[in-house]
Amino acid sequence: MNLRQLEMRLERLEGFERPTARLEQYQTPAPVAARLLHHAAMQGAIEGRWVCDLGCGTGILACGAALLGASRVTGLDIDPAAIAVARRNAETFGIAVEFLVADVRDPGVGWQGLACETVVVNPPFGAQKAHADRPFIDRALELGEVVYGIFNEGSAPFVAAYTEGRATIEEVIRCAFPMRRTFAHHRKDRVDITVEVIRLKRI
């Protein structure tokens, strides 16, 4: 499946029914999700691999990984409503994805049983709560051998410093992230920001 075909399929998925600002529930745009996943697939990190999507929301990255031939896909999110949509999205494509309601900060989850080969993650950017992305980075590096994450433009130096001794940044790809009006405090129908897709390799 080429990049454009993947993007077109991901465009069909449902988004959040009632997004929550506190959780920074912005829908990952299909072009960004497709680019991350296609690039990861070209690097051998998707097909035949166990892929975990942390903070999966409505499952766009998880579903895309399954479409690209991942051997197993697990998506986790703290919001049961988002997980319900994610399950419907998987059913739409007739793909097998295991979706779990879980908080990445909860030590009571059986994380050892979720150790995988590849983690994909679009963590909160920290607009509502400073450093909200850190628990996602920590858990991603605990679970996966390689991590593909979406971060605000200019985040690479922070990510490098925060993960020093645990991982190395192997690649940074900048791309446009069209953010549509989602919450009451938004004034424009769409704002295009720039994000960085960062590939981390666990040491």
General description of the model:
The chain has 203 residues and is of the alpha/beta class. The protein is 30% helix and 26% strand. It is built from six helices and seven strands, in the order H-H-E-H-E-H-E-E-H-E-H-E-E. Strand 4 (118-121), helix 5 and strand 5 (146-152) form a beta-alpha-beta unit. The N and C termini lie far apart (31 Å). The model has no long low-confidence stretch (mean pLDDT 91). GO terms for molecular function: methyltransferase activity.
Helix and strand arrangement:
Elements: H1 3-10, H2 30-42, E1 50-54, H3 60-67, E2 72-77, H4 80-93, E3 98-101, E4 118-121, H5 134-143, E5 146-152, H6 156-162, E6 167-180, E7 190-202
Parallel strand pairs: 1-2, 1-4, 2-3, 4-5
Antiparallel strand pairs: 5-7, 6-7
Helix pairs in contact: 1-2, 2-3
Pfam families: PrmA
GO biological process, one term: methylation
Protein name: Methyltransferase
Keywords:
Rossmann fold, alpha/beta, transferase, methyltransferase activity, 26% strand, 7 strands, 6 helices, seven-stranded mixed β-sheet, 203 residues
Give the number of helices. 6
Shape: globular
The biggest sheet, with number of strands, parallel, antiparallel or mixed sense and barrel status, is:
7 strands, mixed
What's the N-to-C terminus distance?
Answer: 31 Å
| pLDDT averaged residue by residue | 91
Query: How many structural domains are formed by the residues?
Result: 1
CATH domain class: Alpha Beta
Backbone CA Rg: 15 Å
Q: What fold name stands as the CATH topology? A: Rossmann fold
By CATH, the architecture is named 3-Layer(aba) Sandwich
CATH superfamily: Vaccinia Virus protein VP39
Q: Which parts are unreliable, with pLDDT below 50 for 5 consecutive residues or more? A: none
Strand order of the largest sheet: 3-2-1-4-5-7-6
Q: Given the helix and strand composition, which structural class is it?
A: alpha/beta
| Beta strand % | 25-35%
The number of E-state strands comes to: 7
What helical percentage do the residues reach? 25-40%
Task: Give the helices and strands as they follow along the chain.
Answer: HHEHEHEEHEHEE
